[in-house]
Amino acid sequence: MLSRRNFTKRSLASFLLTALPSVVFAKNKIINYKLSAEKSNFNFDKNFTSNLWLYNHENPGPLLKANKGDILKVNFTNNLDEPTSIHWHGIKNINKMDGVPYLTQDPVQPGETFSYEFPVNQSGTYWYHAHFESWKQVAKGLYGPLVVNDKTDDLIEDDIVILADDWRLNKKYQIDKKSFGSLMDWSHAGRVGNWLTMNGKKSPQYSIKANSLARLRFINASNARILKFGSSLKNNNIIAIDGVTVKPMLVKDFTLAPGQRIDLLINSVDLLKVDFFEISHTKQLKAFTLNVTKANNKTRDITNINFTSNWILPKLNKAKIINIRMQGGAMGNLSKANFDGVEKDFRSLATEDKKLWAFNKEIGSYEYLLAKVKLNQVVILDVWNDTRWPHSMHLHGNHFFVKSKEFKDNIDYISRDTYLMQAGEKAKLIFLADNPGKWLFHCHMLEHAASGMISYIDVA
Ligand SMILES: [Cu+2]
Question: What is the CB neighbour count within 10 angstroms for residue 183?
Fold first, then answer.
């Protein structure tokens, strides 16, 4: 005979098994995390201990996960000797939680804590990173992945984050500090490295299940390196760009500029192993390997997974157009620019102030107001990269639509938060300014941002 207690237990258990959908999306569930910025030891090579700055002593920082609709609450402590702050890259955030020092919050001082709390209403692959002197703090390792799940993710068996970084290390596997602030780097492509890692490792191996689906979430956390990935597969199936689901696109390879994300879907039917390579140089580097584990499970039916984007291009007839001419850098045409209200020639800006890049002849900073926009106005950032260098342009707090030329079959608008502009390219970045606040628009080659390619747009 069943006791009442057992009966209750059993019926509750069977209720849980049968009546609830496989993923429960509670309304406004609070997901708590603790992060601290720490001076840490890490081993790139077994013979050397590298001194890095990491969140929770991990490289990359802890994977933060939430479901769409949750509230993410991150209790952050700064255990460094200098101020810092955390930016949640790609999240349509509440402005005061965006993590930009002096613009949206006071820097978090050594020993202080700051509680970041914001809803995550868009699913996808995001990341978080230090935004105080990020050219140095990100280079030392202050970043980590942030994944917001939706119901589609429940239908995919394996989910692997691939966070790529391009470190510049010296012979003893220490961060090459001598190169910090190098005028050569800052005026050229930025501080590119010599040691490529995926999730802190060289060529790691992962296993995925046979006859099933795996989602790979690529994130480029490099200061300046534009990465390009290919694999041993004939085609790679892109299902999301900068967190936004797209109609699946088959590509041979794909580019990932600093700050950008790409999600791939791998169908492991008939596969034993897949090698991924970084192919931006003539010398290919093995990035990582997926090993398919043996299993007797049946082949997956993937017809019930619906990859569609629900982002709609806003009407452009009443749009406000903001013209942005990017200038500066080596071999550029910036002869003079305004810095702190004073017009100076390029040579003095470079040698006296270490400022090298400008928007509309203004050397940018966290205090440089590029434009004021009314709430709910449609905005077109009409950007001209009038420099000899590519730039990875990032808008905080908003995704924008852009007619991307990267995906040859796709001539349509793509929604993203970071767009790689080639030298000489002109592009229109379109967004509905429905998120009030002061939103940075800057180059994610972090040395370029530090030396002037940075501004904010005020939406009120
Ligand atoms: Cu740049």
Answer: 14
- Separation of 381 CA from ligand 1 center, angstroms? 16
**217 Cα–ligand 1 center, Å:** 24
β-pair type (30-45, 71-78):
parallel
The Å distance, Cα 273 to ligand 1 centre, comes to 37
What's the gap in Å between 329 CA and the centre of ligand 1? 9
163, 265: one domain? yes
- For residues 184 and 165, state if they share a domain: yes
In a domain, 99, yes or no: yes
Query: Which regions of 19-123 does DSSP assign to beta strands (E)?
Result: 30-45, 48-55, 64-67, 71-78, 86-89, 113-119
Q: 270 and 374: one domain? A: no
87-125 CB burial, b ≥16 within 10 A, e <16: bbbbbbbbbebbbbbebbbebbeeeeebebebbbebbbb
CA–centroid distance, 100 to ligand 1, in Å, is 18
Angle at 14 between CA 13 and CA 17, to 5 degrees: 90
120-147 pLDDT per residue, tens: 999 999 999 999 999 999 999 999 999 9
Asked whether residue 95 falls in the same domain as residue 135, the answer is yes
pTM comes to: 0.92
Query: Over the stretch 317-328, which tens digit does the pLDDT of each residue have?
Result: 999 999 999 999
| 390 CA distance to ligand 1 middle (Å) | 6
Domain residue limits at 126:
30-148
**How far away, in angstroms, is 211 Cα from ligand 1 center?**
42
Distance 22 CA to ligand 1 centre (A): 44
Q: How far is ligand 1, taken at its centre, from the CA of residue 267, in Å? A: 36
pLDDT in tens, 260-318: 999 999 999 889 999 999 999 888 999 999 999 987 667 666 767 878 777 889 999 99
